[in-house]
Design goal:
The protein is α/β, with parallel strands linked by helices and 294 residues long. Helix content is 51%, strand content 14%. An eight-stranded mixed beta sheet has the order 3-2-4-1-5-6-7-8, with helices on both faces. Bound molecules: guanosine-5'-diphosphate and magnesium ion.
C-alpha cells in the first residue's frame, strides 16, 4: 500500500545529508513531480508540500542535519492536511437526538450500500440499534442488495417500492424509527453522477426533510483524481461533514486520500479495506503518516 509515495518520501530523506537549501527542495520536487502525479497526488497538494518545506528551510527552523528531524517535518506536513475525528459511535454517544440521522452520499459503485452495512454491523456490536434505510429507489437491485445485507447482519431495513420519493420515504423511516426505539438511521441514497443537477437537488431535499444530523461522503480510492470532482460537488450540494474512503485494500497509490482531505478540509472517518462487514478501520492522520514514512 502507498509504495510509490513511500518511496518518494524516503528518497527525499536519504537525499538530504547536510543543511538543506531552498534550491534542494525545488530540485527535488522537479525531479519527483511525475512520481507524485503517478501516485494520484494532485498538483495543488504537491505545491502545498513544496511550499511548506521551502518555508521551513527559509525560516531556518529546520537545519536538516538529522534524518529524524526531516522525518518529523514530513510527518507534520502530512498530518496538517488531515483533520482528526472521532468514530461514528463516539459522535453518536455525545449527541442527544434520537434517532440520530446519517445520510450516505456518493456516485454509483463507490461502496455506499456496502459501507452502510459495515457501519450498521459495527453499531450493532456496540449495542446501538441501527435502522438501514433503502432510499436508493432508483437503481435496479439496490433495495434487494440492502435487504440482503440486513438479513446477513440481522439489522432491519426500511424500504418501499422502486420509484418511491426518497425524501418522503426517509421521513417515514424516521418516524418509524422514533416509534420503534431505533437509535440511528443509516440512509443509503441513490448513486449520483455529480453533474446531474436534478439528482443533487433531490438529495438536498432528502437531507433537509429528514433533518440529517450527519452527511457522509463515500469516495472510492480507485477513482483517483476524479474523487476530487465528486467530493467538491457533493460538498457544495447537499454538503457533508465527514468522508469514508473505500477499496483502500485494492488501491496502491494513496494520493486520492491526500487530495480528498486537502480539497474538502473535512475529516476522513473510516477506510473501507475489503468486502467483509468488519473491513472498516478508523482513519487517523497518524495511520497515513505511519504508512508513508514508517
Ligand atoms: N475491495 C473492496 N471492495 C469494496 C469495498 N467497499 C465496497 N466494495 C465493493 O464495491 C462494489 C460496489 O459497492 P456498492 O456498495 O454496491 O456501491 P454503491 O453503488 O455506492 O452502493 C461492490 O462489489 C462492493 O463489494 C472495499 O472497501 N474494498
Ligand atoms: Mg448502492
Amino acid at each position: 500500500m502507498f509504495d510509490k509515495l513511500k518511496k518518494i518520501f524516503s528518497d527525499f530523506i536519504s537525499s538530504v545529508t547536510g543543511k538543506i537549501s531552498e534550491n534542494d527542495v525545488e530540485n527535488f520536487f522537479k525531479e519527483k513531480e511525475i512520481d507524485f502525479i503517478e501516485a494520484d497526488v494532485s498538483i495543488d497538494v504537491i505545491e502545498y508540500f513544496k511550499q511548506k518545506l521551502i518555508n521551513e528551510v527559509k525560516n531556518t527552523k529546520f537545519n536538516g542535519t538529522k534524518n529524524e528531524t526531516l522525518k518529523e517535518l514530513l510527518a507534520r506536513t502530512i498530518t496538517e492536511i488531515f483533520q482528526e475525528t472521532e468514530t461514528l459511535p463516539e459522535i453518536f454517544s455525545k449527541a442527544s437526538k434520537r434517532p440520530f440521522v446519517t445520510v450516505f452520499l456518493g456516485i454509483n459503485g463507490t461502496g455506499k450500500t456496502t459501507t452502510v452495512a459495515k457501519v450498521a454491523y459495527l453499531l450493532k456490536k456496540l449495542k446501538i440499534r441501527p435502522l438501514m434505510v433503502a432510499a436508493d429507489t432508483y437503481r435496479t437491485g439496490a433495495i434487494e442488495q440492502l435487504v440482503e445485507h440486513g438479513s446477513k447482519i440481522r439489522v432491519e431495513v426500511y424500504s418501499k417500492k422502486y420509484g418511491a420519493d426518497p425524501a418522503a420515504l426517509s421521513r417515514e423511516a424516521y418516524e418509524y424509527a422514533q416509534a420503534n426505539g431505533y437509535d440511528i438511521l443509516l440512509i443509503d441514497t441513490a448513486g449520483r453522477m455529480q453533474t446531474n443537477e436534478s439528482l443533487l437537488n433531490e438529495l438536498a431535499k432528502l437531507v433537509s426533510v429528514v433533518r440529517s444530523d450527519l452527511n457522509i461522503f463515500i469516495g472510492d480510492a480507485l477513482t483517483g483524481y476524479d474523487m476530487i470532482n465528486q467530493a467538491t460537488t457533493f460538498l457544495s450540494k447537499p454538503g457533508f461533514s465527514y468522508s469514508i474512503v473505500t477499496k483502500v485494500d485494492a488501491e496502491v497509490k494513496g494520493g486520492s486520500i491526500l487530495n480528498l482531505a486537502f480539497y474538502t478540509k473535512k475529516p476522513i472517518m473510516y477506510l473501507g479495506t475489503g468486502q467483509n462487514y468488519d473491513d472498516l478501520i478508523h482513519f487517523t492522520p497518524s495511520w497515513v503518516v505511519e504508512r508513508l514514512l514508517g
